[in-house]
Amino acid sequence: MKILLTTVALTLLLAISYSQDSRSLPNYMTDYEKSIYGEYLKNLPHDNVQDQNPPPGPVRTMAEWEECQGIIITWTSFTSILGQIVKYAQVEGKVFIICTDSNAVKSYLQANSIPLVNLRFLITNFDTIWCRDYGPWAVYSNNSDTIRVIDWIYNRPRPLDDVTPVFFANYVGIPIHQTITSPNDLIATGGNFMVDGNGTGFSSQLILNENPSKTEAQVNAIMSSYMGITRYIKMQTLPYDVIHHIDMHIKLLDEETLLVGQYPTGIADGPQIELNLQYILANYLTCYGRPYKVVRIVMPPDASGNYPNTGGDYRTYTNSLIINKTVIIPNYELRYDTTALRIYRESMPGYNVVGIDCNQIIPSLGAVHCITKEIGVFEPIFISHAALANTSNTTQPYEVKAYIHTKSGVASAKVYWSLDTASGFSQLNMTAAADTFRANIPAQPLNTKIYYYISANSNSGRTVTKPLPAPHGNFQFKVTNTNGITQTGNNVPGKFELYQNYPNPFNPTTKIKFDIPNSVGVARLRNGQAYMRPVQLKVYDILGREVATLVNENLQPGTYSVNWNASNYSSGIYFYRIETEGFVDIKRMIMIK
């Protein structure tokens, strides 16, 4: 059905398209756009309305680390950044380029020695570069069957951008479902949505603020029926993040790992980011029922040393793109970039992590993630697996269990495991009960590190691994009881404390004790339980290299001790460092063999 535009809508459309240079518009709304936004929403120019019903359920929104057929970009301003994205992304899949002149794009790429590989040109009009926010969202019926596109109302008065999901869905032949008419009308933006692929979604409260006529329950219901979001976590907006998009300060690296931007204490949005993180950790577990792991990454100042609270650019490393086995992150200055790249590579082993200079685009409040949008494959093999944790078990096999589903059916599934990846992996066939597959890795002695990954084949001949970059990237766990953490008392300490290890010097084991108090001396409760703090206790050598992680979990207030067995390490000076919310301490210890 085609709805005729009203006179008002036509007037607004012309005003937006011709009264400003729309293709250089920032990610935030200009003053002019703010002045017309209310009238624009009253007269939305829906000139290409398609299916407005929810997809036939149940549906599942794919996570960014799942297998993609490619990404979408819009070719307009910031061509040097777009060109680099094409360079890295085309190796991993198709690059759908929205543009008005494909020859101009080809000429630019060739002039910059970028191959014309895996490119698809979608010739159409558009308003801006920010396709993460207005682009299509990929969901699957029945977890991994038919791929579908979900189209929200874009939260900017940019009508040409807003019709992009319809154009793309028609181009590739994917069914589309639109949240554009009552009672399912929903205003939303892609940069403010993060999903774990297992039904959990994250946004700032912008999603509620921009839909004032709806209750939170109604917003949740729309996200559930259209996108399969059964748990929708919403955080407070940040004081200095003008657009209030969570991809500017937080990112899921996998189902259980949060990459969180970190400012110096008390600076800019740092305090609210920390409060948001603690809200998540105190109230939610991962889709596998475990505490989230947290990886911190710096939010650097601009070239003049200013942060957003003093007029500096909103530099962020969380605004990155995962496309199959490559991760593209924004870069700004070598002294910060080097650390950011290292953190990504340590947190996402096996991935090709590359950087793109984003100094030109970041003043417009966006970077790599904001100008890209991933699209899933037509027939995914969905593997959901809770990675095995460290264990003290030396007698019983270690069960690897996974939910595996694909449209054509699973032909076979295997676990590959190794004690030394340089020597290759052994293979175990997984047995199936419905969509649950199992295999047992043989028991190993103490101080053994085990590497493994899952591989599944579909009846249609497709193969996918979990993690995606396996075997170079894999799951790992240790057989050890030396790092077992023990709560040693029932009294709640009044302050943080990291004690000197005992004995010291030691050979080869030593005990480290620490205290975790209540928050500001007051117990916070969660389901009748005391508030849990994220705690990391790590060991470093004399050169500052991390050699062991003794604790990386959420702990209730109390006194704890943990043992470290250094039998595999050389004699010398080591440092142990504890970090939890608002507290960091370091102490020295000596191991003498």
Question: Could you walk me through the main structural features you see in this protein, from its secondary elements to its overall organization?
Answer:
With 593 residues, the chain is an alpha+beta fold. The chain folds into three domains: 10-376, L-arginine/glycine Amidinotransferase, Chain A (5-stranded Propeller); 381-479, Immunoglobulin-like, CATH 2.60.40.10; 485-591, Macroglobulin (MG2) domain (Immunoglobulin-like, Sandwich). Helices cover 18% and strands 34% of the residues. The protein has eleven helices and 38 strands. Strands 22, 23, 26, 27 and 28 form a five-stranded antiparallel beta sheet that branches. It has a four-stranded mixed beta sheet with strand order 1-5-6-8, sandwiched between helices. The protein has a four-stranded mixed beta sheet with strand order 4-3-2-19, with helices on one face. It is globular, with a radius of gyration of 25 Å. It starts with 6 loop residues before the first helix and ends with a strand. The model is unreliable at 1-20 and 520-530 (pLDDT under 50).
